[in-house]
Amino acid sequence: MDYNAHVVTPITNGVSIPVPISPAGVQIAAVGVYIDPAVPAHFPNKVELKATIGVDIPLDFPNILVRIWRAGTEIFYARAEYAEVIVDDGIISLHMVDVNVPAGVQNYQLIVENQDADSTAVVVGPVIFSAMAIGG
Asked: pTM for the complete prediction?
């Protein structure tokens, strides 16, 4: 078992990262875990990934796409759509499980982009990204 977390900021207004318009994206956090090939129970395995992303929505209502990449390959994406009920701020929380990951060091990237060219969004925090590798 291995665990890693990247706490960019634990609070709202701890960062100010503009969310670019698709197809551009911006990495807001990264974590890595180690799956030991010497441990007989390393396969099958799971890597549990969790993220919390605080966003400020100053105008309009963006569609924020959250992506997770492992070793240069996208393994997860989900879209957070904001409607008129959200006035200024929102929290995106996600939980994903990567199954049967290759042994060795696995690096994960958390990326956001805005799919609505007529709106703006800014990552303001909190930004927390964690990974827990569980063998067998």
From this structure: 0.93
